[in-house]
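Quick review question:
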């Protein structure tokens, strides 16, 4: 059997194999040292630097080796344009801007940039589509108003809407624009949510409200498990996800050639009012067929693929296959950088394979919630097969190497997509990347440990860093060596030793600045937006510290209503500081009469637990409150004490239990340090009521 070390050393370390993926770092030890880089005029950050000659060479190699002669995507992207959107800015309801397309004008002003990977520039150009498009007669898409698209299907009495963007403001603008161009004044007759990520349901209140839905009996259709999965994915680690999201989406970066360029799936996410209206019809079976406003539809549930709850839809009379977000123009995330449970690449592949043979043998158009359609059965089958193989390869070949001893810390240097997929544009890493997805597959099956005892219970990074810095002879020697590595273009090596220095000496200004310079060059070289954004965001925080701007948006009442009582109680247990609870003990009954729920909540062993469906005979406290009233507390609109005081909530027993429990809750800091020394001194942490539910931001994918 080939040894793990042999596998690693057998790989090419120069040329197209790494360069086209944006990860060749030109580690040529013979390269001549250069003078320290000076700040670049016109860079959005005063300490920002120009791309080095090494970075420029990486991008030139990608430009030479990638299939830029294949322009079919541009042709398909332009096809069916009905009308461009002329209003470049969409205001939001709070007086700001929900969407501003002019921010991305720079993308079309040059053929190439020395700070943007040419493949990333390519997808950014394709994402400039901004207007109304006809897919086939009876199917239209409004594109470019948000991260995702809104699709309209002509029904017997009105328009069936597939996915409704992130914000009410962008959804309202899309609907208004569609009505001006092709809507004919016909109403919305149904809405379909393809899956649980916010860019597919968050804009619903820009189109409809509950009263109209009830009055006109409008079906709101969603896949099995939609409501439970929609919230649960963002609650337990929500604060940490929000912080990590800032890196993945480059939230500190200016939209500019040296900063944020595009999010790959679309140009970016809108900034408006997120709402949720619960579905009133759930597609429960694996395959379910019924008419929606006279349009025959075949739904294919695809759980645990791109989202925990997701479904594809086939329109047999139009031979049109909607692949939701399971098949777009990119390799998607198996592991998402903001954090989530690892997705099942093999299951994903098999659902695409099923769609290929169930629908794809006759479908004449393939379209989705992002990017652009593909027309003709041969093209449909070509894309479905390649996407099927893309996810199957990620699963099978990563495990092939793992079974030969390649670890989670090595796989991203070993696994490569097959050459045919590397030369296929829609298999490029515009959302997921081969590097971080490969590590995600290992994580799913084997976990974080690489089986080396030295890494099983390691020193904390700051403790290990102190040792390394001492053994390397101190900060000055490290900075000198890192400067040489930087000037040679050996950026990952420079990052390795400078990262140790920054963790050992957080206030070492020269070390922080040089690490920022290193990460900036690595960021420029990335094809993948999440990787680029993460390196550039890290460089920004090293230079300027963590932003003191207000953290993520507050949780909307709609999403609070969607949170189950059990989920809320579980989150209280996470928010509780167990160190304060040592020696405390109580049992509480919680009863919510309007929905018939009953819980036992117990504190013992400094741990808060709950179980649904039971009541303790000798509880210290019984709290009775309607779930609808409890939601006001969860939303931060009223306190539990106020509900008890006016009789809305009733208590029996020791009401002091609630006071003691409240005293155990902590406020999670949405701006916690990722890199040491970057948090401004005295930066405040926003205070939330002890019983307020605080979910993570509803995250687009």
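Suggested answer, residue by residue:
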């Amino acid at each position: 059997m080939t040894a793990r070390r042999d596998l690693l050393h057998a790989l090419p370390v120069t040329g197209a194999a790494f360069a086209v993926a944006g990860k060749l770092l030109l580690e040529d030890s013979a390269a001549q040292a250069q003078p320290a880089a000076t700040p670049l005029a016109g860079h959005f950050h005063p300490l920002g630097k120009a791309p080095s000659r090494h970075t420029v060479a990486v991008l030139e190699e990608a430009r030479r080796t990638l299939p830029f002669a294949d322009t079919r995507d541009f042709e398909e992207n332009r096809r069916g344009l009905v009308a461009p959107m002329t209003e470049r800015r969409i205001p939001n309801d709070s007086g700001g801007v929900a969407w501003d397309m002019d921010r991305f004008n720079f993308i079309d002003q040059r053929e190439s940039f020395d700070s943007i990977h040419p493949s990333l520039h390519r997808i950014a150009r394709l994402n400039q589509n901004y207007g109304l498009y006809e897919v086939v007669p009876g199917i239209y898409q409004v594109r470019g108003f948000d991260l995702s698209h809104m699709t309209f299907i002509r029904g017997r009495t009105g328009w069936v809407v597939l996915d409704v963007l992130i914000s009410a403001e962008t959804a309202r603008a899309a609907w208004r624009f569609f009505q001006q161009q092709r809507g004919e004044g016909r109403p919305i007759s149904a809405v379909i949510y393809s899956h649980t990520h916010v860019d597919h349901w968050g804009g619903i209140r820009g189109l409809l409200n509950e009263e109209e839905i009830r009055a006109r009996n409008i079906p709101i259709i969603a896949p099995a498990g939609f409501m439970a999965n929609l919230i649960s994915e963002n609650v337990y680690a929500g604060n940490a996800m929000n912080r990590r999201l800032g890196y993945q989406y480059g939230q500190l970066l200016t939209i500019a050639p040296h900063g944020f360029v595009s999010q790959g799936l679309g140009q970016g996410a809108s900034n408006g009012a997120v709402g949720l209206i619960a579905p009133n019809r759930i597609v429960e079976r694996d395959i379910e067929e019924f008419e929606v406003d006279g349009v025959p539809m075949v739904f294919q549930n695809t759980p645990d693929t791109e989202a925990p709850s997701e479904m594809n839809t086939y329109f047999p009379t139009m031979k049109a296959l909607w692949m939701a977000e399971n098949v777009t123009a990119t390799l998607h995330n198996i592991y998402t950088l903001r954090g989530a449970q690892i997705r099942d690449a093999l299951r994903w592949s098999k659902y695409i394979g099923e769609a290929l043979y169930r629908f794809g043998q006759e479908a004449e158009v393939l379209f989705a919630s992002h990017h652009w359609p593909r027309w003709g059965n041969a093209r449909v089958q070509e894309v479905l097969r390649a996407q099927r193989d893309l996810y199957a390869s990620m699963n099978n070949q990563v495990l092939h190497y793992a079974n030969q001893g390649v670890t989670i810390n090595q796989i991203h240097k070993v696994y490569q997509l097959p050459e045919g997929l590397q030369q296929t544009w829609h298999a490029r890493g515009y959302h997921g990347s081969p590097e971080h997805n490969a590590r995600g597959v290992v994580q799913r099956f084997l976990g974080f440990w690489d089986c080396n005892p030295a890494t099983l219970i390691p020193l904390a990074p700051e403790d290990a860093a102190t040792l390394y810095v001492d053994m390397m002879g101190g900060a000055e020697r490290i900075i000198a060596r890192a400067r040489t590595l930087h000037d040679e273009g050996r950026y990952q090596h420079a990052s390795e030793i400078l990262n140790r220095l920054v963790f050992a000496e957080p206030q070492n200004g020269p070390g922080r600045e040089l690490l920022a310079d290193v990460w900036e060059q690595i960021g420029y070289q990335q094809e993948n937006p999440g990787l680029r954004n993460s390196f550039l965001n890290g460089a920004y925080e090293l230079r300027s510290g963590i932003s003191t701007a207000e953290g993520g948006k507050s949780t909307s009442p709609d999403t609070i209503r969607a949170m189950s009582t059990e989920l809320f109680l579980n989150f209280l247990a996470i928010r509780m500081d167990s160190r304060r609870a040592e020696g405390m003990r109580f049992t509480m009954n919680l009863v919510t009469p309007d929905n018939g729920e009953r819980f036992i909540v117990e504190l013992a062993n400094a741990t808060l637990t709950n179980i649904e469906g039971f009541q303790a005979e000798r509880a210290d406290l019984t709290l009775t409150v309607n779930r609808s009233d409890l939601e006001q507390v969860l939303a931060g609109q009223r306190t539990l004490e106020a509900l008890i005081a006016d009789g809305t909530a009733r208590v029996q027993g020791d009401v002091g239990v609630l006071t003691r429990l409240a005293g155990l809750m902590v406020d999670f800091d949405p701006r916690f340090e990722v890199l040491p020394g970057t948090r401004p001194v005295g930066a405040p942490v926003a205070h939330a009521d002890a019983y307020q539910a605080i979910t993570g931001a509803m995250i687009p994918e």
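Why it works: The longest helix spans residues 377-402. The mean pLDDT is 92.
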